[in-house]
Amino acid sequence: MKRMPTASQTVGPFFHVGLARPDLADLTRGGRAQGEPIVILGQVRDGDGAPVPDAMLEIWQANAAGKYAHPEDRQAKPDDANFVGFGRAFTDKEGRYRFTTVRPGAVPGRGNALQAPHIAVTLFARGLLKHLFTRLYFADLVQANEADPVLSGIEDAAARRSLLAEKVNGAPATYRFDLVLQGEGETAFFEV
Amino acid sequence: MVDVRPYRREQPGNHPPYLYPDYASTVKRAPTRRLIRLEQTLTEVTGPVFTGGWTGPAIADLTRAGAGEPIGERIIIAGRVLDEDGNPVPGTLLELWQANAAGRYFHDGDRHDAPLDPNFTGKGHVITDGDGAYRFLTVKPGAYPWRNTYNAWRPQHLHFSVFGPAFATRLVTQMYFPGDPLLPLDPIFNSTADETARRRLVSIYDPALSEAEYALGYRFDIVLRGRAATPMER
Asked: Is residue B157 annotated as a catalytic residue, yes or no?
């Protein structure tokens, strides 16, 4: 018998109580994961351009070789026992968050298409009755991004641009990815 | 070519909308652009796996957070995590947080003038067993005021976070209690348009779960999206 899925409800403002877990913002486990360490940072803003200090971001990504640590990824690529691929970070008073991770390898898309390296992002906050899905792409991977089936399927240039994290520092490579919930520069969010 | 078995699309009315003005915080936080439909890829049908102990030791008994017993009515909350087809979702992380019996969270941001309980932090987490089952022992959270509108009170509730097998199945929800007079007045509860969907957020008192002379039992099953019938949707 088919059951109705449980409805989403907001995380509210006090999610830190139950969702804070040590070290989840460092996906490299103190540098033990294989691959190039990178930093992802940014700010979450609302429709007034005000920082959102009570948001949580979760990220999910492939390892440096382009393989997910999940039984349904059956690609013949190396696993990394030190890389779960999942991270969680909370915004601070200025709406800022930060992850340390490794640069993800490319993974296949639908059909025979290869996707550009990307990180899946979910955003939770007080005032969000359901979390939002988006994707982070690396702005400096111009050719790969142009060939990416998801990115190239987005017609609106501003929406496409909102998914590109800009490199702001060299060592380690640091990318800035802001999330704008509404209005000018609104981030493109997905129905998954 | 990678064969991906996508998850079913969510049905309108089953989940709340992003913009729901009765819940004032949605007004400046709801996206205004239509969501872009994403055909699920390997990225969306995979998600974190909770083996290897990286989530830390389970906390299924929230009454053991301090040196003594917390104040409040002891309750057992148990149920299963299932998918839409009724299949159990084993091995998934279920996280829980709640206010104490006086309606106060163990959180710096909570300014409600109600006492903190030194023996209660209100956090727990378990990994579902092979049957998708879980069980927590805790105390019943109190109702508390919030500033959404004048004299607004949240019904008694617990927050649940659950992952399921994929990034696409992620869910955060709230569990309520049967007969709570605040439910019809609560915009967060009422934001879900479908009455059946709302009713599923209310736990069921289950005498078989209760422990004599010790704790009341409430049953709460969580249902996640199931797989689409065919590998290629549409």
From this structure: yes
B18 catalytic residue (yes or no): no
Q: For residue A110, what pLDDT is reported? A: 87
Chain B contact present for A64, CB below 8 A: no
The pTM score is 0.97
- pLDDT, tens digit (0-9, with 9 covering 90-100), for A157-169: 999 999 999 999 8
The predicted structure's pLDDT at residue B133: 98
What burial class does residue A172 get, using C-beta atoms within 10 Å of its C-beta: 0-12 exposed, 13-18 middle, 19+ buried? middle
Which residue among B7, B20, B23, B105 is the active-site one? Answer: B105
Task: Give the mean pLDDT per block of 10 residues along chain B (234 residues).
Answer: 85 92 98 96 98 94 97 98 97 98 97 97 98 98 97 98 98 98 98 95 98 98 91 46
What is the spatial distance between Cα A123 and Cα A134, in angstroms, rounded to a whole number? 8
Domain-wise residue ranges, chain A = 18-180
Domains of chain B: 24-224 (2.60.130.10)
Restricting to A residues 134-163, those with a Cβ less than 8 Å away from any Cβ of B are 135, 150, 154, 159
Tell me whether B96 touches chain A (CB under 8 Å): yes
Scanning B10-69 for CB atoms below 8 A from A yields 10-11, 14-18, 20, 23, 25-33, 35-49, 52, 54-56
Residues B107, A16: C-beta atoms closer than 8 Å: yes
Dist CA B71 CA B2 (whole Å): 54
> Is B154 marked active-site?
yes
Q: What is the pLDDT of residues A128-174, one digit of tens each?
A: 999 999 999 999 999 999 999 999 999 999 999 999 999 998 889 99
CA distance A190 to A44: 17
**Bridging pattern class, strands B204-205 and B216-219:** antiparallel
Among B74, B104, B154, B227, the active-site one is: B154
Residues A102, A96: Cα–Cα separation, whole Å: 20
**Residues of chain B contacting A125 with CB distance shorter than 8 Å:** 29
Task: Give the one of A11, A73, A120 whose C-beta lies nearest to B159's C-beta.
Answer: A11
Query: Look-up: residue for tokens 């070789």?
Result: A65
Question: Which residue from B73, B67, B156 is spatially nearest to B119, judged by alpha carbons?
Answer: B67
ipTM over 0.85: yes
Fold for domain A18-180?
Protocatechuate 3,4-Dioxygenase, subunit A (2.60.130)
Both tokens of A98, joined, read 């930060």
